[in-house]
Structure prediction request, 71 residues.
Amino acid sequence: MDTLIWIGAAISLAGVAGLFWCIFYVIKLRKQSLEDAELRARMQKAVIMNFAALAVSTLGLMMVVVGIFLG
Prediction:
């Protein structure tokens, strides 16, 4: 079960990396001088990626917990 824990930790870290990507993407967007409609359209991409990163991170944490319970 140690393998499940380490794989879950790696997946969780990938999700956290995705969250940091979302943060830096939004910071970069706000520094650009975009029109409101274009800014909203690009922010929708960040929101979708944010939810996906949260889901991946949650999946990884669930794998870690299952690995601990089974181990």
